[in-house]
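Before surveying the methods themselves, let us examine one representative protein, written as a sequence plus integers encoding its fold.
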Amino acid sequence: MSGTETKSAFLSTELYVFLAAIAGVLIASYLVGADSAGVDVFRADRAWLYITALTIGYLGSRGLAKAGSAWRNSGERGR
């Protein structure tokens, strides 16, 4: 890996925040349960929708980090 490349995903704190957020959504969905009328207020489909949104955000942040590192080191900046 060259010096111009961004950190690997395993070395970034983004990965750990992403995994913690997913765990939080899944745990919250499991623990919330039903309300007094017996209706599940945080259903699995909503939890998976939130996880999908978190995944899109994580992938977008990694993509921006990769794109930003290439732009900064392209040699075009100083002109």
